[in-house]
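Marked as duplicate of an earlier ticket. Keeping the data here for the record.
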Amino acid sequence: MDQPIRFSWKFVRITLAVAMCVFPVLAFYVLSKAPNFEARSLILFQLGREFIYVPDAEGSGVKAPNPGDFQGVVNAEMLLLDNPELNREALEKVGIQRVFPGLPEDENAIRQAVLWFQAATRVELITGSYVVKVAVRHEDPEIAAELTNTLTNAFLERRRRLHATRESANLRVRLQAATTQEGEITRQLSVLLGGLDPQFVATDLDKTSEDQANLARLLRDSRTKLAALEARRQLYQKRFGTGDQMLETEIEIREELARVDYIERAMVANRSKMEHLSKLMPAMRPLIELRDQQAERIAGLQLRLRDSEALSQGTSEGNVRVIEAAVAPLRSTSAPRRVQLAIVMVVSLLAGLSVAGFNALITHKETTPRTPGPQTRSREGAPSSPAGRSKVPSERVNLMRHRAVGQDRS
C-alpha cells in the first residue's frame, strides 16, 4: 500500500516561493485596476391605453376581458433598452472618446464600444412592482451618471416617438374612413328626402299630424253645428212667419257645408302627406342615427388626434416616466483595497499549496519501492519453486555473478 505524504520543510519552501511569485503579479493587477462606479435610474411603467384598453362593462351584462399580465408588457418594453442602436445613440451623445479614451474612430471600434457599454449596463425589473432599474458602471462617476440619464432619455424619446407616430397614423386613417362614411350617409339621406333636411322632414311630419288632429276636431264641430242648423231649419219650416229666420238658417247651413268640404279636402291632403312622410321615416331614422354616431365618432377621433399630436410635439412622458434620475455615485462598487489584497493573498497561498502538493505527490510515487506480486501456484495446487517466489531482476543477477567471479580470482 502507498505510504501517506509527509509535509516537510521542502513543502513549505515550495508553497512560500510560489505564493511570493504569484502575489506581486496579482497585487499589481488589482492595484492598477481603477475602481468602478455604478449609477442607477428608475423608470416607472403605468397601465394606460398605450398598452391595454378594457371597456367599462358595468350595467351592460357583459364581462370585460382580462387585460392579461402587465409584467410581460413591461418586459417587452425593457428589451428596447438593450437595443444596440439605442446604446450607440447614447454613447454618441455623451462622446465615445470621453467614455473610452484612446479608442480608434472606425466602425469596428465603435461596435466594440457598444458591446462594452452593453456589458456595463444592467436592466432589471424590481420584484413586486412595475419599476425598471437601469444601472451603468464606469470608472468615472460623472460619466456613469451621464450615460445612465442619456440612455433613459433616449429610451423615452424613442418610445414616445414610436407610440405617437403609430397612434397618429392610425387615428388619421380612422378619421378619414369615418368622414367618408359620414359623407356617404349624408348623400343617401339627400337622395331619400329629395334634398330636404331630415330635421325639417321630422318636424313637418309632427306638424302634419298635429294639423290632422285639429282638422278632425274642427270637422267634428262643424258637423255637429250643421246637424243643429238642419234641425232648426226643419223647425222653422213647420212655423209661419219665420221666413227671415229660415233664410238666415239656410245661409248658415251653406257656409257650414262649405267649411266641412274644405276641412275634408284639407284632411285628405294631410293624410296623403302623412302617408308619404310615414313611409320615409323607417328608412330615414336609421340613417340619421348612423350619421349622429359618425359625428360623435369623428369628434372623438379629432380630439384624440389633437392630443396625440400635442404629445408627439411636447415633452410629456405619458404612462412611462423617470421617478429617479441618475446622480454621480459616491462609493465604488469594487471591494476595498484591503479586501482585494486579502483575496490575492489567499489565492497566492492556494496556488503555492497546489504546486507543492503536486510536487510532493510526484516525488512520493518515484521513491515508493515495488512490492512482489502474489505467489503463483501450479496446476495441481502446489506452491511454486523458490525461484518463482522471489524473482530477482536480471541486472542484479549479473552483478552478483561478477562479484563471485572476482572473489574466485582473488
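See parent ticket for discussion. The longest helix spans residues 243-313.
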